[in-house]
Amino acid sequence: MDPHQDFGAPPGDGDGAVREIACDESGSDGENLTGGNTDVFAHAGVHVPAADAARALEEIRDRIRSPATEYKATHLLREKHRAVLEWFLAPGGPLHGAARVHLTEKSFFVVDRLAGVLLDDPGAAAELYRAVREVLGAEDRQRFLSRANQLLRTRNGAEPGSSVPWFFETLDGLRRAHSGTDAGPALERLAEGRGRAEAYRAGLLDGPAVRIPVLNPLLPAIVATAAYWSGPERRPVRLVHDRQNLLTPERVAWIEETARRSGVALAELRLVVARDDPRVQLADFLAGIARKAAGDALRGDGDPDLTALLRPYVDPASVWGDGRTAATLGLSVTHSSVREGG
After folding, report:
1. What are 119-167's pLDDT values in tens digits?
2. How far apart are CA 261 and CA 131, in angstroms?
3. pLDDT of residue 335
4. Sequence-separated (6 or more) residues with CB below 8 Å from residue 94
């Protein structure tokens, strides 16, 4: 196979044809967003014909020559395979003009959800996050985020009735410590949401057995992916997604209904085995690369060249709060994600 071959963009969809997008994710820690292994969750969608995707995988195998039966993003991210990684993302590579990745900064996602539950004001998330990130020290910031994560988790391992007092005890301590700082007003406003917090936890105990978890970023990311590929023209799309335990039939139905209610022409969400679909494997590569690159940038250890290659693929509707890295990724910091409930 010619190593310089230009795979190009996929052919355009005919009028009224359903656009099929292959999807996968990277960085999933369920609802454990502050104590997991990664800082970023990434969900990729790829619009490449299956035959072209198979050819791209063959090309990657020819270049890397690993004995692994299933390749992952980690193969491309190894320094000795840097040329393959750059080819994969660069113009002329297999994804050029045919892929997007939706990023979620996990800490901001927790704050976004907290603002939604306690304040019923999604617009408050950006201000609250700036206060938490810029004013609170590292130890206070981690304690705040961990307590917020525990408060919002569907199953958090705590005794019933303890999550709310623990969170507000932590919040009260932070209010006293930072009363004269820029974080003070945001923390004071949160303190007014105790009644909402109590109602939220009570609803988790008394609500339906099938629940849409507030803190898992996968479901809203799938809706966002459908929205991107459907576009303002509302083109019909079918998402072909790697199987996930979270994606039960009830939750798939929720995703489809939520998308349609938002004006997204999502025709279907179909689950497949990733190793059986080369398009999904390409989406897995992109998600893994994006998760690693964005996470490194967030920690101040980013690779500028890799970030520049990634930038054209990043969904502008990504859920991101850190202003410094938002600029390098080509993002705004004002987006909130689709809110779950029920």
Report:
1. 988 788 888 998 888 888 889 999 999 999 999 998 766 666 688 999 9
2. 33
3. 55
4. 7, 48, 52, 53, 55, 56, 59, 88, 282
